[in-house]
Amino acid sequence: MAETHTYDVAIEWTGNLGSGTDTYRSFSRAHEVLATGKPPIAASSDPAFRGDPSRWNPEELLVASVAQCHMLWYLHLCAVGGVTVVDYEDRAHGVMTMDASGGGGQLTEVVLRPEVTVAEASMVDTARALHGEVHAVCFIARSVNFPIRHEPVIRVQ
């Protein structure tokens, strides 16, 4: 039997401005993403869809999930592959393309731009190559239907 892991979160809408969803403009898209034992994530819809720009939106959270999963698997592969990473930052970028009918859209690409610092110059080639191996094992990358590209920059400490 296959091993499984479960993830439970709650979404709590906090945007009732007094008349509920009486009209498209009568309510806020404000909500919280909750999980037991963790601080809430203040969220909303994308500002293009009447969301609060000071809150996280689902599209940003999905792009962040892709970037986080890539980073965590990359660090694992480096650790077992003899590459000592001393710093890692990513400026991930997601693109949502709207449906021509105006009914919706979907993420059509995520570009990861990790900036990795390794301990020694002899590790640079392996460090660069390991980015290409992450997609095969990253849970999130294996679960989405859009391409994920990576444009790594590798530096030496």
From TrEMBL:
UniProt protein name? Peroxiredoxin
Q: Which Pfam families match?
A: OsmC (PF02566)
InterPro entries (alphabetical)? KH_dom-like_a/b, OsmC/Ohr_fam, OsmC/Ohrsf, OsmC_Ohr_Peroxiredoxin
